[in-house]
Amino acid sequence: MMQHTPAAAQQASRSQRDSETRARLEPGNSPPAIEVQDLGKSYRTARGTLHLFEHLNLRVESREMVAIVGQSGAGKSTLLHILGALDTPSSGRVYCASTDVTSLTPRQAAAFRNREIGYVWQFHYLLPEFTALENVAMPLLAGGIRRKEALEAASRWLAEVGLEERRDHRSGELSGGEQQRVALARALVSGPRLLLADEPTGDLDAMTAERIFEIVERLHASHGLTSILVTHNLDLAARCGRTLRLENGGLAEAAGASKCDPPGSIL
Length: 267
Ligand code: ADP
Fold this sequence. Notes:
The protein is an alpha/beta fold and 267 residues long. The protein has helices at residues 6-25, 76-83, 106-116, 132-142, 147-160, 176-188, 206-222, 234-238, and strands at 34-45, 48-60, 65-69, 91-96, 99-100, 117-120, 194-198, 226-230, 242-247, 250-255.
């Protein structure tokens, strides 16, 4: 019988680990960033039940950048809220970073959101009485990080969005684009892996929208994010790896995937 020396055993365990790592890194083998199964969402209204989705499926791979487009009222924001554990579906499952977010208690969902998800909205919702630096630090301070550390991290993030010199300005002293850059830094300061953006450029002129989108693209790539953007801007959507159109309660592929993004598919 073959005897394993300690060195041979170490070597065997190293190659086992290496082959597991290789298998995980093979396209299609790592778990998706988001998997939505048979999602349903309806609202009871005075005029009857509004079925927004009944059997919606979606798979988004880690590090993909996906745009969601569709007519006003199609349910894009509602879908984004459900993906980000801000709203609950009427039926179906949503796995986000391998966690079934539909099974979380409200307290667990809050902790999950703080840890895993960065949100950006059309309107920045900065706190007007605080400076840009304090606004960016806010999620860390709320999470119990010491003030000095939180402000240092916020300062690094303001530098990432090119706003170091505006750190002591209050939101009323910033332009719309600058406010959105602060909001972006605030969304990412806690190190989430998933960025959900609802019309992040919707309130901005074309040039400023372009500048914000470039920053989102850069941060998406440099921080290895998975990003989902709801937008009405088809030119910006076309620059994402995939564009999905939400209509009639389902998602359909609306444009080709770019070469640099990993493959993903609608189930
Ligand atoms: P979109 O982002 O595509 O414009 P939304 O997700 O905001 O669409 O809304 C989709 C539809 O759901 C709209 O018709 C809206 O009026 C309806 N809706 C959203 N929230 C509620 C609610 N709490 N109760 C009833 N209807 C709602």
